[in-house]
Design brief:
Elements lengths: L1 H15 L1 H12 L3 H29 L1 H18 L6 H15 L2 H9 L8 H9 L1 H17 L9 H23 L12 H22 L4 H4 L3 H29 L5 H29 L3 H20 L3 H22 L1 H6 L2 H15 L1 H17 L6 H16 L18
Helix pairs in contact: 1-8, 1-9, 2-9, 2-12, 3-4, 3-5, 3-17, 3-18, 4-5, 4-6, 4-9, 6-17, 7-13, 7-15, 8-13, 12-13, 12-15, 12-17, 12-18, 12-19, 13-15, 14-15, 14-19
Length: 417
């Protein structure tokens, strides 16, 4: 888990460091808020197109090789963003970055179904999702400092930001090739007895899932009503996550502070979120409850976005960003316990990718809508109210589902450890 979390940390940093680069890049290459919103979001169009094929390729070729392939291509393209010269090249490279990274997150989520039973997955996803607050806690000050390299070597600071933060993905890809295994059966660091015990636990978990939901084939999963519904429910969550990630540095810049101070302020919401997230996910596993553990964070996000959008006071707006960050960091890991509880085998590979690809269209819609409203109102925070409304819909949709439909189970019915 620490190694997988470190991979996600680098992936997420490369995905959202655009928010800090924009503090100086937009003026240097002539990007309007509208075009910047398009560039932030077009990543997810490429992501959407290649997500399912990439995850099916992972199931065929194995996690070790395919995850390394993803990391090399995204690292190279992320670093190449340093050489964009205007709106056209900016949009093209953001689209290619989405194609390159497609399959990474659902691939890891699918990979974890080989190692951990459904009753433990909120806690495990909570550990994995620590990469997001850590990427902001570590990456925000580093990104701000890299902007100060302006003029070094004849390049802008934002160019150094993309180059320096893109290279770790390539380096870690070679570590993944050596370190990862495609499943527990190949894990040399487990004893034979441990491998057998883990295999029995996971087989029992698979049987429990198939008794509860029936056997879903790969072909059936793409039109499965519950898979499509969960994909649509995930859209507002990604709208919130990336609307926050791409625009919060510019919202905080309106407080009248330096770029370095923006980087330091950006770490504070994620410090709170990291602590609350671990507790929240553990509590979901202990109780076996999933719906309210997803809905309450969505409501918290909606409230936080509303505070940031309407408050005339900077400290209240900042408090809203803290609450929104806590909400998004608690909603995402508990969400992924729901589809992974009902899908197994190749259907899990296709279904998880399908849900993620649909949901990540919110990553396009969120920045685009916020960018359009920001250009119209001259206030990036005003677009957050649209995200708040979408999150209310997501919370209500999940609460209307039956507990069984989202993988809720009492601790008494779970398989023995």
């Amino acid at each position: 888990m620490p190694f997988l979390t470190s991979l996600f940390l680098v992936a997420f940093l490369d995905r959202v460091n655009l928010g800090f680069a924009a503090l100086t890049m937009n003026a240097d290459i002539g990007l309007s808020p509208y075009v910047y919103g398009w560039g932030a979001g077009i990543f997810f169009i490429g992501y959407f197109l290649f997500e399912v094929p990439s995850n099916l390729a992972l199931a065929k070729f194995g996690a070790r090789v395919w995850i390394a392939r993803i990391m090399i291509t995204w690292g190279v393209i992320s670093a190449a963003t340093a050489f964009v010269r205007g709106p056209a090249s900016f949009l093209v490279l953001r689209f290619l970055l989405g194609l390159a990274e497609a399959g990474f997150f659902p691939g890891i989520t699918f990979f974890l179904t080989y190692w951990y039973p459904a009753r433990e997955r909120a806690r495990i996803m909570g550990i994995f999702y620590l990469a997001i607050p850590l990427s902001n806690i570590i990456g925000a000050p580093i990104s701000s400092l890299l902007l100060n390299l302006n003029g070094f070597g004849g390049m802008h600071g934002w160019q150094w930001l993309f180059i320096i933060e893109g290279l770790p993905a390539v380096a870690l890809a070679f570590v993944a090739l050596r370190y990862l295994t495609d499943g527990p059966d190949e894990a040399s660091w487990l004893s034979p007895d441990e491998r057998n015990t883990l295999s029995e636990i996971m087989q029992a978990d698979k049987c429990l899932s198939e008794r509860a939901y029936g056997r879903v084939t790969l072909r059936e999963v793409f039109g499965h009503p519950r898979v499509l519904l969960l994909g649509l429910v995930y859209v507002p969550v990604t709208m919130g996550l990336y609307g926050l990630g791409f625009w919060s540095p510019q919202i905080m810049k309106r407080f009248g502070v330096s770029n370095l101070t923006v980087g330091l302020l950006a770490t504070i919401p994620f410090l709170f979120a990291a602590v609350v997230q671990v507790y929240w996910c553990r509590h979901s596993d202990v109780t076996g409850e999933r719906r309210w553990h997803f809905a309450v964070p969505c409501l918290l996000m909606a409230g936080g976005f509303t505070m940031s959008a309407f408050s005339p006071w900077h400290y209240v707006s900042f408090l809203g960003l803290i609450l929104s960050t806590i909400g998004v960091m608690c909603a995402q890991p508990t969400f992924w316990t729901m589809p992974s509880a009902m899908l197994t085998g190749a259907a899990a590979a296709g279904g998880l990718a399908m849900i993620n690809s649909i949901g990540n269209l919110g990553g396009f819609v969120g920045p685009y809508v916020v960018g359009w409203i920001a250009e119209t109102t001259k206030n990036p925070a005003s677009g957050l109210i649209v995200l708040a409304c979408a999150l209310l819909i997501a919370a209500g949709s999940v609460l209307m589902l039956q507990p069984k439909a989202v993988g809720e189970q009492s601790r008494k019915s779970s398989t023995a450890p």
